Amino acid sequence: MDTVAELAAQMGVPAANLVATIQKYNKNVTAGQDPDFERSGPLYPIAAPPFWTTRWCGMPHDQCAGIRVNQNMQVVDQMFQWQPESGDSVPISEEKVIPHLYAAGECTGGTGGTVRGSGKRGWYQVHGYLTGYLVGRETPLD
User: Fold this and answer.
1) Is the peptide bond before 14 cis (omega within 30 degrees of 0)?
2) Are 101 and 108 in contact (CB under 8 A)?
3) What is the pLDDT of residues 102-138, one digit of tens each?
4) Is the CATH code 3.90.700.10 the one for domain 1-55?
5) Do 35 and 43 meet the contact criterion of CB atoms below 8 Å apart?
6) pTM above 0.70, yes or no
7) Torsion of CA 14, 18, 19, 24, to 10 degrees
8) CB burial string 47-56: b at 16+ within 10 A, e below
9) Which tens digits make up the pLDDT trace of 54-82?
10) 8 A C-beta contact, residue 73 and residue 95
11) What residues does each domain of the chain span?
12) Helix/strand/coil (H, E, C) string of the chain?
């Protein structure tokens, strides 16, 4: 969309409210602070078109099992997974991973343990961001 008002119309929200919200955010950016969300780091104004949005539908679904990943979202090699009966404890950060293979989101179920619920959407967003960041730092394969 070329204007915030057009974007608001497409979203089905009052244009005046969206414009006011963006103006408030941009004022905070100019001040170098974000008191609404207490974010740190660089803040960027919402100023130049195109303006876009996406719809996020709430879905009360979650996985309790799936691909096992370490703290860097690297897929842990299940063939070499630590076996509790061996008696030795190995942190997941030290377990063997499959090189250049990352996973994020619902396929990595069990992030919050065995508790089902719809409250893990934020975790999945963070994991997706982290995965993209880490993959971007990888040395390209030949």
Assistant:
1) no
2) no
3) 998 878 865 555 555 556 677 778 888 899 999 999 9
4) yes
5) no
6) no
7) 140
8) eeeebeeeee
9) 776 665 555 667 788 888 999 988 876 66
10) no
11) 1-55, 74-136
12) CCCHHHHHHHHCCCHHHHHHHHHHHHHHHHHCCCCCCCCCCCCCCCCCCCCCCCCCCCCCCCCCCCCCECCCCEEECHHHCCCHHHCCCCCHHHCCEEEEEECCHHHHCCCCCCCCCCCCHHHHHHHHHHHHHHHHCCCCCC
Sequence-separated (6 or more) residues with CB below 8 Å from residue 73: 102, 103, 104, 108, 127, 130, 131, 134
Residue 100 corresponds to which tokens in the numbers above? 């250049």
Structure tokens at 34: 């974000």
Rg of the chain on CA atoms, in Å: 21
Other C-beta atoms closer than 10 Å to the C-beta of 42 total 7
